[in-house]
Amino acid sequence: MRRRNRQNPAPFRCQAFTLAQRQNGMKVTTDACLFAAWVPLGQAQRILDLGTGTGLIALFAAQRCSAQIDALEIDAQSLAEAQDNFLSSPWADRIHAIHADLRDFAQHGSTDYDLILCNPPFFQHSTANPCSKKALARHNHALSSLELMQACKRLLKPQGVLWLLISCASFPAFQACAQALGFHRGQRLSLSTSAQTPAHRYFVEWRLEPCNESEAELQIYTEHPRHSPEARALLQDFYLQVH
């Protein structure tokens, strides 16, 4: 059996674009692909992808809509790789790579986004990965839940929508911050590997205006590696092949 090279992973090839991922602390994951394919984009004209990494979420969004998309990333090497991914895609004129710390960007950047999408660092009170890039991408030591939510509140239009991909364990912390800042929770999707396993991720919607809470579920596989019909329907316009 051929082993995967974790130090130099191969590019992740989709139907319309390719994601190089050698310089990024957070590689392409099925969870992020499903999030990017599922999250409602509505009629958004301006979208912000926070912590773009490889550019996955920004590129999925660009394929699904005609919005202008800003992709923010604090790590310079990760952003350079994402920029290359954007430039080689069909939507290079609509995706703008921005090298900045979110806290600084929220103070001096645009404040009229219709939609913010983010797969934030959500591991709390845990031993950070010895790789500094992975630690920055996965752990919230550098950016707390509260700081992230504060920045998002400043950057959104009053009618704007924030969608986060977070671990189930981190949801209470994000929810407490959201409530303290005046956010209202909308839909929450529970993502599990299969119908026999508990949820491990949430896709969560927060709005500044009052909205109704709702719940949904999604299983990735019926039996690994065969995707569930719902997951297959979401990924079929992106993946080269969906089992």
TrEMBL record:
Pfam families: MTS
Family designation: Belongs to the methyltransferase superfamily. tRNA (adenine-N(6)-)-methyltransferase family.
SUPFAM superfamilies membership: S-adenosyl-L-methionine-dependent methyltransferases (SSF53335)
Reactions catalysed, as given in the entry: adenosine(37) in tRNA1(Val) + S-adenosyl-L-methionine = N(6)-methyladenosine(37) in tRNA1(Val) + S-adenosyl-L-homocysteine + H(+)
Cellular component, GO, one term: cytoplasm
Protein name, per record: tRNA1(Val) (adenine(37)-N6)-methyltransferase
UniProt xrefs under InterPro entries: DNA_methylase_N6_adenine_CS, SAM-dependent_MTases_sf, Small_mtfrase_dom, tRNA_Adenine-N(6)_MTase, tRNA_adenine-N6_MeTrfase
Native species: Nitrincola tapanii
UniProt-recorded Gene Ontology molecular function terms: nucleic acid binding; tRNA (adenine-N6)-methyltransferase activity
Compartmental location: Cytoplasm
Record EC number: 2.1.1.223
Role: Specifically methylates the adenine in position 37 of tRNA(1)(Val) (anticodon cmo5UAC).
Domain spans labelled Methyltransferase small: 40-166
GO biological process: methylation; tRNA processing
Coiled coil regions, renumbered to chain: none
Keywords: Cytoplasm, Methyltransferase, S-adenosyl-L-methionine, Transferase, tRNA processing
PROSITE patterns in alphabetical order: N6_MTASE
